[in-house]
Every structure is written in structure tokens, then in C-alpha cells.
Amino acid sequence: MTVTSNDFSDAVIVMAHPDDEILFASSILASAKKVIICYNQAPNSCSISQGRQTVFQQFPLKTAVSLNMIESDTYQTTDWRKPVETVYGIHCGRNGDAYARNFHLLTAALEEHLSAGDLVVTHNPWGEYGHEEHVQVFRAVSHIKRQRDFRLFVSGYVSDRVLYFMQRNSPRLGAPSALLRTDKALGARLMQHYKAHDCWTWQDGYNWPEYECFYEVSDPDAPLRADEATMSSLPVNVIWLDEHALAWSRVLRRAKRRVGTMLHSLVRPTHPQPVRGAGLTYGHLEVPTPQRNSLGRMMSAWLSSRRRLLDIALLCSACLLAEPSIAAS
Fold first, then answer.
1. pTM for this model (two decimals)
2. Taking the CA of residue 141 as centre, how many other CA atoms within 13 Å lie in the half-sphere pointing to its CB?
3. Are 129 and 78 in contact (CB under 8 A)?
């Protein structure tokens, strides 16, 4: 039986950042029982952090609740061509310790708001356009679902950057809901409110699609779809990011990510990020227990040094191609 807008009345919406709720769930926002915003403080932007501290004063939605957590600053650190799922969400190229710590803090905080019998709507397992903290919120809500009996739905948005990963996640999803008309009037109102507080993070003049849909999660830990060339058929709203970016800017972004990760690993040890493999089971995700002999450690160190030289060379090459003004994606 197709899920309609009436089924989403009194839903609990859980989103990572302020403005995610209106971008990915505008059609059901006005009727939601509660709207939970997880991360409020952005360590890489003082202006956004300050704006988010005041944005919930006289907020247009009286049902909004902020958990006021600090972001882990892991955006654009994942290689989405070869993503690796972890217990905490997705493997990040930097700040893995903060990312892991946030998972535990987030799970504990959300347990106070999610109850058996709720209908919960959150981010999808590919993080809409490929945001590491969106994936983490999905994983945290899924973890609580194992303990409490509630229905879980995810948004139907994807970007060209993670289209491949979305297709591999299709075994975890049930049938889509009916197409629901987006609330453009509420979208415009909230966009102006966020802009007034200098914390609107999406493009200016964003035009919402006419419709959106949501997918019920049948099994959040189901095995990913096999790596095949064929594509799954899912109705989604596509956000074009890399398609409209110049080739050199994509090369620059990848090079900056790799070199940033390299520099971060030199000055700070990396927190282990459990992935699928042999070892301690955590739900259906497993913590690996790799063993490496002395020869393996020597080879790893040698390859790592060669990789760092390659990273530096790539960054230098990309910088030579860079123009004075680079639009952030």
C-alpha cells in the first residue's frame, strides 16, 4: 500500500544541520510532530556558528529542537568513488576521532526523542549529495531502530557525486511513497530566516522541485548491491554538483582532500574507523582485527611515503591549473 502525506502526519524528522529539514523534507515539515536538528556549531565557520546560535529564536517552526552538537568537520573527506561504510557512518579522510565520538553522543541524545510507534524521517544512507554527517545521522537513527519499534523513512534526494553509491544501497529500501508536493512557500520563508541569521548554507535563490518522495527502510544493514554496471530504477530528485563543475576544479578538490588528509595524519594520529570484515560484530557491521607482520609494516610505510610524494605532486599540478576564484561546491 502506497504511503501518502497523511501517513507522515505527526512524523519525527531528524536532520543533521539547520536548513537540511527544509531542503529535503519540505512536503511534510509543517505537519511534523517534532523536527530535530543535530549539529549546530561549525568549527570551520565562526559566522555560521554564531548565526545558528540565534536562528532558533523566533524560529518559524515551533516544533524544532536543536541538539546543539559540534560538527566533526569531515565534509568532502570521503572518496565517494570507493566509499567504505563504518560503524559510525562512512570512512572519513580526517577527524575520524571526532566523527566516532559524535556517533556515540548523537545516539545517546536521539534516544531521548525517538520512541516505539513513531514514524521517523531522516537522511538516506548515501547522505543526499554525499555529506559524511548525513550518513552518520542515518546510521545513528538506524542503531536506535534496532532497539525500538518505529518506522523509518529516508529522503529521496541524491547528487551525481554519489549516484553510484545510492544504487548500491537499493536493497535496503522499500517502495517509494507517493509523490508529495514540496512546500515552496515554507521553503522561501525558512530560507529568508536562515539568511537573516547568516547561516543559509545552500545556493541563493534555490528553487525547490515540484515533488519529492521518501523511502521506507526495510533493512538498514542489508548487504550492498553487487558492483554491477546495470542501474537500479528509483524515483529520486537529482542534485547536480560535479556535472557543472570544470574538470580542473574537480581535480583540485580531490587533490586538496588527499593532501589535507595526508597533512592531518602527520600531525595527529588517526582514530580507527571500524569497517566490514572479520572481527567484533556490531549489528551487521563488523570491527576488523587486521594482523600485519613486520615485513607488511615495512611495505606499508614505503608505499605510504610514495603516496605522500604523489599527493604533493597532484596538489602542485592542480594549483597550476587553478584560477583566482574558485566556487565552493
1. 0.78
2. 32
3. no
Name the β-bridge partners of 152. 120
What is the number of alpha carbons within 13 Å of residue 136 lying toward its C-beta? 29
User: Are 107 and 143 spatial neighbours (Cβ–Cβ below 8 Å)?
Assistant: yes
Q: Is 75 left (phi over 0), alpha (psi -120 to 50) or beta?
A: beta
User: Strands 279-282 and 285-288, how do they pair?
Assistant: antiparallel
89 neighbors 135 (Cβ within 8 angstroms): yes
User: DSSP class of residue 81?
Assistant: T
Q: Round the CA-based radius of gyration of the chain to a whole number and report it.
A: 20
CA 198/CA 18 separation, integer angstroms: 12
DSSP 83-143: --EETTEE--SS-HHHHHHHHHHHHHHHTTT--TT-EEEE--TT-TTT-HHHHHHHHHHHH
- The per-residue pLDDT for range 83-105, each reduced to its tens digit, is 999 999 999 999 999 999 999 99
**Residue 226 neighbours by CB distance under 10 Å:** 8
- What are the counts of helices (DSSP H) followed by strands (DSSP E) for the chain? 9, 15
| Residues composing the chain | 329
Residue 71 is classified by DSSP as P
Neighbour tally for 124: CB within 10 Å: 25
Q: pLDDT by residue (tens digit) across 175-215?
A: 999 999 999 999 999 999 999 999 999 999 999 999 999 99
Strands (E), 133-277: 151-155, 157-159, 173-176, 180-181, 211-212, 214-217, 237-239
Q: In a 3-state reduction of DSSP, which class is residue 6?
A: helix
Domains of the chain: 6-244 (3.40.50), 247-321 (no CATH)
